[in-house]
Amino acid sequence: MKNPIIYALDFDGVICDSAIETGISGWKAATQIWPDMPVDAPTEMVELFRQARPIIETGYEAILAMRSLYLGATVDSLYQGCAEQFQALMQEAQVDSAQLKKLFGDTRDLWIAADKAGWIGQNPLYAGVVEKLARLNQHSDWYVVTTKQERFVRMILSGAGIELADERIFGLDRNLSKIEVLKILQDRHPEQALHFYEDRLPTLLKVAQQAELANVELLFAAWGYNGAAEQAEAVAAGFKLVQLGEFLV
């Protein structure tokens, strides 16, 4: 008998710790726009990106974050005003978000074509998550709700031995917001409780404003790309803070 809970899981920062791969892909893509950057991402830049990773909502923004860091931006400055910095970089390079999304995806595809195992290796699932997802496959309906391109999600899950049907992966390709996806899942499973695990507080705050989604259980993944300040803010806003160990039970 199926578990009455439907799981809607963000991918990066909930299932997969993709910060290093995202940073390296962002750097590789940035070098194609700004050839003054070295071909290989310096280790210290990748580490700075990992610290700044919580600001990234959609993968292509890693291109702009890496360019900003190369130009001397601090992690703190990105937290304080990355939107303005990113917009200025896009205007300077005369590129828009659609072009950057394509460049980011193409850059990943080239890396995968050259070294698929190495690329997957830079996208590890959090400790214990493989076993958790395998158990969910046996007794629960679960979905991936992400801004990542779906083919990358499939590749990473498959590399970890987890199979998930295409119709259960809602990614960037569908041009749907997470709010829209949650409404689809709620309509698809009207008699079951929907639990949404997300590591970005702004996303949860947007979902919480939707009256139609008032019955969705919103869970803040403390093991993902967020910090102590955001966690305290999440608790103050009434969200349940979940540690990795609690999710794995």
Chart the SSEs and their pairings.
Layout lengths: L4 E5 L9 H15 L9 H10 L8 H10 L4 H19 L3 H25 L7 H11 L1 E5 L4 H10 L9 E2 L7 H11 L4 E6 L2 H8 L8 E5 L6 H9 L3 E3 L1 H5 L1
Parallel strand pairs: 1-2, 1-4, 2-3, 4-5, 5-6
Helix pairs in contact: 1-2, 1-3, 1-5, 2-3, 2-4, 3-4
Features:
alpha/beta; HAD-like_hydrolase_sf; HAD family hydrolase; Rossmann fold; phosphoglycolate phosphatase activity; hydrolase; 2 domains; six-stranded parallel sheet; HAD_sf; 11 helices; 249 residues
Can you characterise this structure?
It contains 11 helices and 6 strands. The chain is α/β, with parallel strands linked by helices and 249 residues long. The protein has 2 domains: 5-17 and 124-248, 3-Layer(aba) Sandwich (Rossmann fold), CATH 3.40.50.1000; 19-121, no CATH class. A 6-stranded parallel beta sheet has the order 3-2-1-4-5-6, sandwiched between helices. It starts with a strand and ends with a helix. The mean pLDDT is 95. InterPro entries: HAD-like_hydrolase_sf, HAD-like_sf, HAD_sf, PGP-like_dom2.
